[in-house]
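ARCHIVE CARD
Drawer: 12
Card no.: 0347
Subject: one protein chain, sequence and derived structure
Cross-reference: see card 0346
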Amino acid sequence: MFKQEFKNEIVEIRGNKIGLGESKLIKIPIDRLPTGTLIEIPVYVFNGDKLGPTILLQGGLHGDEVNSIELVRRMLIDKSYKIHRGCVIVVPLLNIFGFLSLSRYMHGKDVNRSFPGSKSGSLASRMAYYLMKELTKNINFAIDFHTGGAQRNNFPQIRYTPEDERGYKLAKLFNAPFLFGSKLIPKSFRNQCYKNNIPVIVYEGGESLRLDENAIQQGINGTLRILKHFEMINHSVEVPENLITIAIHKRKWIRAKVAGLFNAKIENGATIKKGQVLGNIMDTYGKTNFDIKAPFDGYIISKNNFPIVNMGDALFHIGTT
């Protein structure tokens, strides 16, 4: 996989050339605040001594998904990117404006619904354009780190494009607790990369505006497994293996049939049986108590942590093999 497509002899980003055995921090100017303060995106490039695959590790495409940012940042601090072969391009925080405003969006727009972008479009569109133009032209594949949104906590899971055999193999190497194929979303980063023959796997773990230690560590371990498989890092680096990756083939969101106070009675990631009570919804005066039951055997791959729900709100994401 990727043996004939190595791109790291010379990596060029924004006019900066990084050769074999070189590392560099590149700051890409994006825009200015109304005060005139320049906003830049830091891009770390770690190019090994030998030819090998080039991988993009990207966090913070959605600004409120701090777990993804912390995951990539922690690997920088721990010097996990001591690369001997191939190249790693690291973007700890892409959506700086969303991060500053504690928002998924960038000036009201979703960057991950703005690809391929435009050089003269909105800020989100320009961000998408330069991401494709400057970074992805250099890479063989990418890991895009995300979390659940709107108080929904995703149990550590890796997603791949069903039509992409290389993406599936990368997802298996990542070895997250759950693995499943996910349809391409129009105008998303993964969709645009697929059009350009670049496999992208998406790691989901935790929820927005929360740090989740298990999700962070699972993401780090999965990334290191891939780097070690391609002999990009020293073989002596110890990476724990998950006992099993559960391949999910069917998924269903359980939604609230009534409004009220939601109380989950099952842990995220748990195995469940058909008919099992997963939680309940009560009205604020204690007059009603509506049980939420599992529609089939399976696993909880995501749960809503917000206690106040309206009819139709997503409560549990259930997967089955």
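Annotation on reverse: The helical segments are 66-77, 96-100, 123-135, 165-174, 189-195, 213-229. The chain has two domains: 10-230, 248-320.
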